Amino acid sequence: MPVPSADVPRLDRLRVGSAPDSWGVWFPEDDQQVPWERFLDEVSEAGYEWIELGPYGYLPTDPAVLHREIAKRDLKVSAGTIFTSMHRGPENWDATWQHVSEVATLTKAMDAKHLVVIPSFWRDDKTAELIEPSELTTEQWKHLTGGMERLAKQVRDEFGLDIVVHPHADTHIDTEEHVERFLDGTDSSLVNLCLDTGHYAYCGGDSVKLIKTYGERIGYLHLKQVDPDILADVQTNGTPFGPAVKQGVMCEPPLGVPALPPVLEAAQALDVDLFAIVEQDMYPCPPTQPYPIAERTRRFLRSCGA
Fold first, then answer.
1. Degrees (nearest 5) of the Cα angle 38, 41, 43?
2. Where is the Xylose isomerase-like TIM barrel domain (predicted)?
3. Which residues, 6 or more positions from 235, have their beta carbon under 8 angstroms from its beta carbon?
């Protein structure tokens, strides 16, 4: 593992954390996932201070219980996560808001300030079944951008939280073209990005370029890398995201792309406080696999100045 030197920048605007995703957690309940107590124990032992809530219901949803459990491990919550299908139009609003309200209530109770918003998938991440077209119509783009602005305003008004939209593989906000179209179509005072460096690389994007071009729209970071050899195979075979993760397409730093030091330095140059939450998609995984990776990743990030 690299050793910090005097030349390493001090990335003091970045608040490094991790998430249940780095422990192979994708669902509220699943026999292939580690118990939530083990996640909290190990994320703290690995040297992280901040966590995300993960899928709603994985961690305790009683604020008093969750406060007690994270406090005794010296942890704090940076964000909750929600899933949306805004492109499907206003008729989808009520179901969306019911889900958002649950997550936002717990997120606010944990003194966090962000909701990470993940768009719905256009194909099933397990079966590869096509759910809907991968490209939106002009009308659907209007629903998507307008719906996100409505969501951001209501979340801010009712809960005092900011949404950060997460470009994600196999969703309609994925490639550089789609991300830029989304940013150009939304109000920067309401809607900003959670830039996931792994997903953006998976979809062909350049994280450093995005940060330098749309810096004022970067509200949150997920730190992740992609194995370029496995990604090439995934692209050749049209493998959906879920099976690609099982192949190991997301790998621990510094073994993949993008190189994280330039990303971290570009984020630091924005001169705003940003969460930089480590996520390494690896569902499902052996229960003994996540902790050593998490510990090595934390040491690597320290060697980068974070």
1. 100
2. 40-303
3. none
Tokens representing residue 55 in the block: 């899928």
* 107: in domain: yes
Predicted TM-score of the model (pTM):
0.95
238: left (phi over 0), alpha (psi -120 to 50) or beta: left
| Amino acid letter, 245 | V
Given its phi and psi angles, is residue 11 left (phi above 0), alpha (psi -120 to 50 degrees) or beta?
beta
Q: What is the total residue count of the chain?
A: 306
Residue 62's domain is classified under what CATH number? Answer: 3.20.20.150
- Domain count for the chain, please give it: 1
Residue 140, C-beta contacts closer than 8 angstroms, at least 6 positions apart: 87, 88, 89, 172
Predicted confidence (pLDDT) per residue in 12-51, tens digit: 999 999 999 999 999 999 999 999 999 999 999 999 999 9
User: Phi, psi (5° rounding) for residue 41?
Assistant: -60, -50
What is the pLDDT averaged over residues 170-197? 98
Is residue 184 scored above 50 in pLDDT?
Answer: yes
> Does residue 256 sit within a domain?
yes
Q: Which of the four pLDDT bands, split at 50, 70 and 90, describes residue 6?
A: low
